[in-house]
Design a protein that fits this description.
The protein has about 200 residues and is mainly beta. It is about 10% helix and about 45% strand.
Length: about 200
């Protein structure tokens, strides 16, 4: 009887967490939603960016700052849907070592910046690690991005096209995720993660 009561109590605790914090609810395909479009649950604000939440979207529209995950991640697949202006400077940073100081020097920046002066590391590249091929323009429309980080190997796809096939770097094995607002408007309506 005690075991049954414990199981029932555990079920209701899990149900409560899923309902009250949808940002950590797991989907049927094993992916977990990191953003819910109505709150910043699971995230900290670092820097001076302006983050607006509503209609299922998180928007960054002022430089310079980050939304930084409260959890650390090691090996994973990220699925994101984002919209950016053609001159937007943004990115999804992964395995960041210092949650209070996000840079491409202490984590990996998967770039969202069509007009980056060095086009080899523009949208779809991993800055200073893996060049984009082919160059992909994201400005003015909704885009999908998939990031695979597995040990020292990385893969990035934009709208179903592989832009980084096998980037390799072993400096950072685990760390937080950060969404960047560094100029222009960027909107995220989906950000999911699945451990591998």
């Amino acid at each position: 009887m005690k075991l049954t009561l414990k199981k029932i109590a555990f079920f209701f605790i899990c149900l409560h967490l899923a309902i009250c914090n949808p940002a950590i609810a797991q989907n049927q395909d094993g992916f977990v939603d990191l953003i819910d479009g109505v709150s910043l649950s699971g995230w900290n604000i670092v820097g001076n960016a302006n983050w607006v939440i509503g209609n299922g979207i998180i928007e960054g529209n002022k430089p310079m700052g980050f939304l930084v995950s409260t959890k650390s991640y090691k090996n994973f697949i990220i699925k994101a849907e984002f919209w950016a202006e053609s001159n937007t400077n943004s990115g999804i940073f992964i395995r960041c070592q210092d949650p209070n100081k996000i840079t491409a020097a202490n984590g990996y920046e998967v770039n969202i910046w069509d007009t980056r002066p060095e086009q080899a590391y523009a949208t779809g590249a991993i800055v200073d690690v893996a060049k984009v091929n082919p160059i992909h323009k994201a400005g003015g429309r909704w885009n999908t991005m998939e990031i695979v980080a597995n040990g020292s190997h990385f893969k990035v796809s934009m709208n179903g096209v592989v832009t980084v096939g096998d980037g390799q770097d072993s400096r950072f094995a685990e760390g937080v995720i950060a969404l960047q607002s560094a100029g222009g408007i960027v909107k995220f309506r989906k950000l999911q993660i699945k451990p591998i």
